[in-house]
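Worked Example 4.2. Consider the chain below.
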Amino acid sequence: MTFVSNDPSWWPLLDAKHFNSYWIVAASVVVVYDWVLTIGQEIELIWRQRWSLMTVLYLVIRYIGILFSVVNVLANMPVVSLTDAVSNILNYTINWTNVVMTAMLGVIMIARLHAMYQRSRTMLIFLVIIFLAVNIACVVLGAIALKYIAAEELIFSGMHMCGYGYEGDAQFLASMVWMLNSVWEVLALCLSVRIAVKHFRDLRRLGPMSGSTIGDCFRVLTQSHVLYFASFAGVSCVELINLSPAFLTSNSIGILILDSALNVLLVVQMFVLGPRLILSVRKYHAKLVAGSDADPSMNSIVFQEHVHISTSGTV
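Applying the procedure from the previous section yields the following structure tokens:
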């Protein structure tokens, strides 16, 4: 049911809504700007290469991200009228998009770790089991939480906005989803750092000329992984704070900035750093092939998508 009011007491909420909408637009601009910056690499490293699972994941994450950004901007524009039904649809769409994109990013992470561990079947099975357990739990918890979130259209002094009411354990269930995802990301980071440290120690022991290529490869994988994890850690911390009762009832400028920063970090983590996890490895592979004349006889590890990286050491 649409709630209409011209009471001036709602004006601080309108100011907060306007402030937040600017950040959402900024996040959308970042996604589109990053796509424009990398379109040349995308054509060369994605469209002109043989199609694989990583190709599909890249394209889905990249272009769903652009569509998501547009929808998110429209949903948060004060001049756009949204009925209760549309508000609920947008709420479900945005939340399930987050769940699906997080799962896709998890698949990319499994592929990277599988490559770093020399395609170890044991490591792959371990990662898949943990990944399925975490994501199945997140889907179940997310579905239950959404049942307790009611959306309605609010019209304050002629400005339209979506209002969300949290009932039951909705906030607790949402925080559990973020905690489970955080556990997965911490595990992935620890496994990545562990194998990278082991490799760098082996390279130091064997000498600078032994396994230099794989050392560079691990450096590329680790650097992009750490950057991605740092973004995820920031998003998780802010999201957990965002779900606290004190946060939901406060209109202070600090809380508004924190909430707005969350919108930017969440979008950047999924739709900018996510695709760049794939581009970083493919770009490195392209430079490697150019430097080695793509010798087909060299030993290699495969980054799941048939990206071959020369190696001369052991994991």
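The helical segments are 11-47, 53-75, 84-116, 121-147, 170-206, 212-242, 245-248, 253-292. The first strand starts at residue 3 and ends at 5. Compare this with Example 4.1 before moving on.
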